[in-house]
Amino acid sequence: LTDHSDFTYTTADSLCHYLIFSGTGQLTACLSALWTPEPEELECLALTRPDMRRHGYFRSLLEALTEDCPETDIIFPVDHDVPSVLSVMSALDADCISTNLRMELDLSALNLSGTGTDSPALTGFTLSENPENIWSLRTNTGMRAGSCRLAYYESAACLHHVEVNPGHRRQGYAAGMLHMLCVGLRERGRKRLFLHVLADNTAAVALYKKTGFRL
Fold this sequence. Notes:
Blueprint lengths: L14 E7 L5 E10 L4 E8 L8 H12 L4 E3 L7 H9 L8 E7 L18 E5 L4 E6 L4 E10 L2 E9 L8 H15 L4 E7 L3 H10 L4
Parallel strand pairs: 3-4, 9-10
Antiparallel strand pairs: 1-2, 2-3, 5-10, 6-7, 7-8, 8-9
Helix pairs in contact: 3-4
């Protein structure tokens, strides 16, 4: 696209789409909404073909969504470097609720030797994935010490919901788990791993930078 817009979304049962087609059957505009229960809100992405913008298609899609979900907060992830998107949000009187950072790790160039699985803190631990794309860090007795989730996009993967159980925090398990995850993903042929993190979550940002992620 001419404005470098990106329109990718993980697949989920709670994902719905609103579409507008031209009289010739050509897709003109679309809006995808992902519902989350806690807190109850809709995270949305919308796109109108560049040559069909400024005709009210986005507003029509948004009105259809709000009619179906009248009491639900609607969240739009936007890039602060795209003025046209910011102007649309301003016209909607939307409030900025948080600033997220996108961080990415090049798995093909990452040096994975000497840390992570070699760390004494992770001796006796395994990391495995279930059919729901949840990776769990477990002891030899089967107790789960931490977990994370992935969404897959061709040769890349998106990391989210990184958690370490309270009894295993501040002991290097999160960094070790991420290292083991990178090893597993690279062995499966994945080339990039990316994530989004709140800008003011300094502990998480520091953890990801330690693992090799860059803004």
